[in-house]
Amino acid sequence: MTDSPRPNGHHGTPLPPSPGTGTSTTDTPGSGASGSGKRRDAFFDNAKYLAIVLVAVGHFWEPIKDDSQFLQAAYAVVYAFHMPAFIIISGFFSRSFDMRPDRLRRLITGIVVPYIVFETAYSLFKRVVDSDPQHEISLLDPWYLTWFLCALFIWRLTTPIWKAVRHPLPLALGIAMLASASPQIGNDLDLQRVLQFLPYFVLGLCMRPEHFHLVRRRSVRILSVPVFVSALALAWPPGVLGGTGWLYHRDSAQELGAPWWAGPVMTLVLFGCCLLLTACFFAWVPGRHMWFTALGAGTLYGYLLHGFVMRAGEYRGWFEPSVLHGPAGAVAVTVFAAVLVTFLCSRPVQRVFRFVMEPRMEWAFKRDAAEPARGRGQGEKPAKQRAGETREARETQEQVSA
C-alpha cells in the first residue's frame, strides 16, 4: 500500500456470520453489536486492526530501511501479506454484493466520495507542504494510498461476474498473469495493481467461514513460526526475495527489468508465497474480543489519515537524523507508527471525519421504491433502529479493509 520506487483457536470461536444471511456484521463501528442485537465477529475486526498497524509500520520503515538488512527483510515479509490479507477480507464481505440500488449508494458514499476527497486532498497537501505547485490533481491516476479505494470500487462492481463464472479464481489468476506482462496498461486507475491483486479479492469471494477456521487451528499457529522465520531468511539481502518491486504489484515484468515471461511466472509464485504468509498471519489473529477489537471498524480512517503524517515526514526531512537509522531509532519509529494509526482508528477521530468517510447524501439519490418492502421484511422494528442499520456507507466502511 505504497507508492514507493495491514483463548484463540477454532473450538471456542463462533463461525463468522455470512453476508446475505440473517446475521449482520455491519453494526456501528466499535459498538460490538449490530442494531439487531447480533454481535460482530471479533476475528475480522482484530485482523483489520493488526493489518492496518502493519501497513503504517511498513510505510514508516520505508525511509529508514536501507540502513538495516534486518529491516529490509522484515519490510519485504510484511509487504508480502498485509495487502493480500486486507483484500481477502474485503472479498469475503463482498459476497452478497449485487447491483441493488441501496448497495450501489453505499458503494458511492463509502468508496467513491472518499476517493475523490482524499485524492484531491493528498495532491493539494503535496503542493503546499512539499512546495510543489506543479503537482497535478488527477482522478484517473490514483496517488499514494488512494489506489486501494479505486481498486476496491472496480472489484466490487465486477463481483456479480465472478459469482456467475464457473471457475473464478483460475480466471482471475490468468488476468493477473497477462497484466504482469503488459507494460502498455499504463497508470490510468492504477490498473496494474487492480489486476495483479485481483486474485486475492476473488479468493475472498470464494471463501466460506470454515476456511478461516482451518488456518486458526493450534497446529497451524505452531507451523507458522518456522514459515515466517524461513521467509525472513529468504528476504535477507542478498537473498532470493531481497527486492520488493514485485511485491508492490505496480509494474509489469518489463518495467522491472525482467523478460515478459517472468511476469506470469512470478504472479503464480508470489500468489502461493503471499497466500501462505497470509494464512500464517490469520492463524495468529485472536478470535476473542481484545482491547483493540473496536478499532477494527475504523481502519479506513487510520489508512487514509496516517498518510498525511507519513508524507509530511518525508517532505520535511523528519527521517533524516542519523539516530533514526539505528536499532533504537527503528524501534522508536515502529512504536510511533503503531500508536499513530491506533489513534486514527479511534472513535473520536471517526466522529470528526465521518462526514467525509461516511457521508449520508440522501439528497443525491432517488428514493428506492423497493426499500419500504425490504423494511417490512425486517419486521416491525423501531424507525430509529432501522435507520441505524441502514446508515449510508456503514456496510462499505466495514468491508473496506484498508
Automatic annotation (TrEMBL):
Source taxon at top rank: Bacteria
Supply the name of the protein: Acyltransferase family protein
A Pfam family recorded for this sequence? Acyl_transf_3
Q: Where is the composition biased (Low complexity)?
A: 20-31
Task: Respond yes or no to whether keyword Transit peptide is given for this record.
Answer: no
Every copy of the Acyltransferase domain together lies at: 42-340
Question: Where would one find the signal peptide in this protein?
Answer: none
Keywords associated with the record: Acyltransferase, Membrane, Transferase, Transmembrane, Transmembrane helix
Q: Which InterPro entries match?
A: Acyl_transf_3_dom, Nod_factor_acetyltransferase
Look up keyword Acyltransferase and say if it applies. yes
Question: For the region Disordered, what residue ranges are annotated?
Answer: 1-37, 369-402
Q: What are the recorded GO MF terms, alphabetically? A: acyltransferase activity
For this UniProt entry, which segments traverse the membrane?
A: 43-61, 73-94, 106-125, 137-157, 220-240, 260-284, 291-312, 324-345
